[in-house]
Amino acid sequence: MAYDRYIAICKPLHYGTLLGSRACGHMAAAAWGTGFLNSLLHSANTFSVPLCHGNIVDQFFCELPQIIKLSCSDSDYLREAGHIVFSACLAVGCFVFIVLSYVQILRAVLRNPSEQGRQKAFSTCLPHLSVVSLFISTVTSAYLKPHSISSPSLDLVLAILYSAVPPAVNPLIYSIRNQELKSAVWRLM
């Protein structure tokens, strides 16, 4: 979405050629492929972990750090740490791409003399940026918090925040620009 916004705002006359069906297919294939590879690595590691601290996970889904806590050996921590480093590299790469796209968008928008054009560009970009920021901040706090402040209830709250809240608020954030929805919300209030 960041690339789509970048092309739409910074190179609008080239939108059809730069973001055609072939480019969208390549981007979708890259996203699905890296997601599949990442989940395959974590799943293979999860199924190979011998559990010796019971088999009850204090989450509403089987999250990897919670499963590793039930593990018998320290080598499982090291192997999972390697997978987390791989995942972190993927996430940092995506985050850098998003940040660079939005820096270019911001530069283009600030050069625009029209106040209405700036407002339209910001209203197009801010919903995406807010959902991405919400997801990244909650995932980062869930996975990078020190073990000293780790508790089952905090882990559960953070897991709900990054797995349920961004998908739930995503339609609301993107729909808020719809005039019919705005008027319905105002009538409801």
UniProtKB/TrEMBL annotation:
<dbReference type="GO" id="GO:0004930">
    <property type="term" value="F:G protein-coupled receptor activity"/>
</dbReference>
<dbReference type="InterPro" id="IPR050516">
    <property type="entry name" value="Olfactory_GPCR"/>
</dbReference>
<keyword id="KW-0675">Receptor</keyword>
<feature type="transmembrane region" description="Helical">
    <location>
        <begin position="124"/>
        <end position="144"/>
    </location>
</feature>
<keyword id="KW-0807">Transducer</keyword>
<feature type="transmembrane region" description="Helical">
    <location>
        <begin position="156"/>
        <end position="174"/>
    </location>
</feature>
<keyword id="KW-0812">Transmembrane</keyword>
<dbReference type="GO" id="GO:0004984">
    <property type="term" value="F:olfactory receptor activity"/>
</dbReference>
<protein>
    <submittedName>
        <fullName>Olfactory receptor 14J1</fullName>
    </submittedName>
</protein>
<keyword id="KW-1003">Cell membrane</keyword>
<dbReference type="InterPro" id="IPR017452">
    <property type="entry name" value="GPCR_Rhodpsn_7TM"/>
</dbReference>
<keyword id="KW-1133">Transmembrane helix</keyword>
<feature type="domain" description="G-protein coupled receptors family 1 profile">
    <location>
        <begin position="1"/>
        <end position="174"/>
    </location>
</feature>
<keyword id="KW-0716">Sensory transduction</keyword>
<keyword id="KW-0552">Olfaction</keyword>
<dbReference type="Pfam" id="PF13853">
    <property type="entry name" value="7tm_4"/>
</dbReference>
<keyword id="KW-0472">Membrane</keyword>
<dbReference type="GO" id="GO:0005886">
    <property type="term" value="C:plasma membrane"/>
</dbReference>
<keyword id="KW-0297">G-protein coupled receptor</keyword>
<feature type="transmembrane region" description="Helical">
    <location>
        <begin position="84"/>
        <end position="103"/>
    </location>
</feature>
<dbReference type="InterPro" id="IPR000725">
    <property type="entry name" value="Olfact_rcpt"/>
</dbReference>
